[in-house]
Design goal:
Length: 219
């Protein structure tokens, strides 16, 4: 895919979006002095830019259109059905940004939180579009840390019949990427930055802190 830097080439592919606008905005998302309002706006903007990249492989079909001059053979999207699924709660911050480019997408929700002691994900909610098997899914979450939440969300979608899933996040740790690749090698991963490591509390270093708290102003 042009414009992408492939970091690994196992079964699931990892795409790091090195577009200057994405990298510029991500810098201010990381900055601890960025307040809630600006943080939310930046996450929304980066989600839109990432959606532009992630839809690069959408299928097209040729149609005829009458221009004022003649008949042109030209292309339109071939009606692929998409669903966006944020992992609650921080994933919500990326939904509207993606919908700006794919307004007809349906939106499902998977509610997961990390147990602060075990760091294991706990599912508390799941609601998907009825026609799960016909849709291509894009799971969104700003952070891929241990990978526990992402793996569980993918499990949850697959259990309900989803067959084609992409995972999109702002910042990933190598541990999280590896967890998806080992458990769901069919799921490609789209990220704005691949960071260095996790700290002892399972936070991404350097990361951006707690994405949910920064988006919603909680602590
Ligand atoms: C954060 C983040 C991911 C998860 C990543 O959510 O939004 O869902 O942690 O960590 P993992 O890869 O180690 O599972 P959190 O559990 O803090 O819940 P929240 O969105 O409700 O704040
Ligand atoms: N969840 C977050 O919000 N931030 C991290 O760094 C890791 C998990």
């Amino acid at each position: 895919m042009p414009g992408y830097k492939k970091e690994r080439n196992q079964l699931s592919k990892v795409y790091v979006f090195d577009h200057p606008l994405i990298q510029h905005k991500l810098t201010y998302i990381r900055d601890k002095n960025t307040g809630t309002k600006e943080f939310r706006e930046l996450v929304d903007e980066v989600a839109t830019l990432m959606a532009f990249e992630i839809t690069r492989d959408m299928p097209l079909e040729e149609i005829d259109v009458e221009t004022p001059v003649t008949t042109a053979k030209t292309k339109v999207l071939s009606g692929k059905k998409i669903a966006i699924v944020p992992i609650l709660r921080a994933g919500i911050g990326m939904v509207d940004g993606v919908l700006k480019l794919i307004p007809a997408a349906k939106v499902g929700h998977i509610g997961l939180y990390r147990d602060p002691e075990t760091l294991k994900p706990v599912e508390y909610y799941a609601k998907l579009p009825a026609d799960v098997e016909e849709r291509d899914f894009i799971i969104v979450d700003p952070m891929l840390a241990t990978g526990g939440s992402a793996v569980e969300a993918i499990n949850s979608l697959k259990t309900r019949g989803a067959k084609n899933i992409k995972f999109m996040c702002l910042i990933a740790a190598p541990e999280g990427v590896q967890a998806i690749q080992e458990t769901h090698p069919d799921v490609d991963i789209y990220i704005a930055a691949l960071d260095e490591k996790l700290n002892d509390h399972g936070y991404i270093v350097p990361g951006l802190g707690d994405a949910g708290d920064r988006l919603f102003g909680t602590k």
